[in-house]
Amino acid sequence: MTDGRNGQRTLVLLRHAKAEQSPDAPDAERPLTARGHADAAAAGAWLARHELLPDVVLCSPARRTRQTWHGVAMGMTGSPAEGGPAGSTPAVRYEPTAYEAHPDELLDLVRGVDPTAGTVLLIAHNPGISLLSALLDPERADPDGLRTTDIVVHRPATAWPTLTRAPLLTRHTARG
Questions:
Q1: Smallest Cα–Cα separation from 154: which of 172, 136, 127?
Q2: pLDDT confidence tier of residue 87, bands split at 50, 70 and 90
Q3: Interatomic CA distance for residues 150 and 4, integer angstroms
Q4: 59 has which bridge partners?
Q5: What are the pLDDT digits (tens) for 88-116?
Q6: For the whole model, what pTM was predicted?
Q7: Half-sphere exposure in the Cβ direction for 48 (13 Å, CA)
Q8: DSSP state, 62?
Q9: How far apart are CA 96 and CA 174, in angstroms?
Q10: What average pLDDT does the structure give for the chain?
Q11: CA 64, 65, 69: angle at the middle one, nearest 5?
Q12: What is the distance between the alpha carbons of residues 68 and 52, in angstroms, rounded to a whole number?
């Protein structure tokens, strides 16, 4: 891993894709809908077009976030095992604390990534993922938060361990 292109760090926040509503299944086991699978692949294609392939992926272990990551990886490269710079394999961590996490818990996960990582992709849930984006850039955050398969790209000026603020560069809603 390198310290990002030109020494830059990029944090990509992604709310999971559209999931089925099922009162009979535990929340953590809800799968993506057909639209959710298509949207996740579209998110991966958008990330690839914008050269935002992750060095590190932090993902909630919920079924819908794992399926979102798989779709994103397929959309980026055609293979769930590839990503990162020049097709290298990203380090993927399924983090139990990312499920139902508060923004400070998500921030702690990001602060703990390899300091040499250039691009970090965090796939998680609302309200935590929306609140993290607002914490990083209160002026530019969308007051309505992130919708399913919303991508926000932040550019930290500091090393991962000292991250507190990061300007929001762009936002995209992926639809397949």
A1: 136
A2: low
A3: 23
A4: 94, 123
A5: 689 999 999 999 999 999 999 999 999 99
A6: 0.92
A7: 19
A8: S
A9: 25
A10: 91
A11: 120
A12: 16
